[in-house]
Amino acid sequence: MAAREIEERRQAWREAYDAKLPLAAQLDWPYTPAWQIAHVMGVSESTVYASGKRFDDAMRREDRAAAARDVPCVLMGHSHRFPSAAFIAWWESAGAITMDRLTCAESSRVGAT
Fold it and tell me: Which of 33, 51, 81, 87 is placed for a possible disulfide with 70 were both Cys, Cβ 3.0 to 4.6 Å?
């Protein structure tokens, strides 16, 4: 696929995305691209990749508490794979709450300056 076609596909997906609808019906399966996760979370794609790396590192250390704070990811060489079912389970439990708390904390710091 050419870069223009890829960006058109991304734009069409973003326009059709509805946060009120179930994620399972909107994400690519079995692995969700980082750009879709970024859109759902309201962060940059690089933030998703960094979070996935932290998740993988924590899981390799068997630190499940630390891993629970980050986007579930499987690193294979230089490839990041975000399992759709794992992302949905994380987002619908701890993920959205974590993002909300981080956003609130950031807002309060910005307002305090």
Answer: 51
**Residue 31 located in a structural domain:** yes
Residue 5 lies in a domain: no
Asked whether residue 94 is assigned to any structural domain, the reply reads yes
Which residues form the domain of 75?
26-112
Contacts (Cβ under 8 Å, ≥6 apart) of 107:
none
pLDDT in tens, 63-78: 998 998 899 999 887 7
The encoded tokens of residue 78 equal 């230089």
Number of domains in the chain: 1
Burial profile 48-62: b = 16 or more Cβ within 10 angstroms, e = fewer = bbebbebbbebbeee
User: What totals of helices (H) and strands (E) does the chain contain, helices first?
Assistant: 6, 2
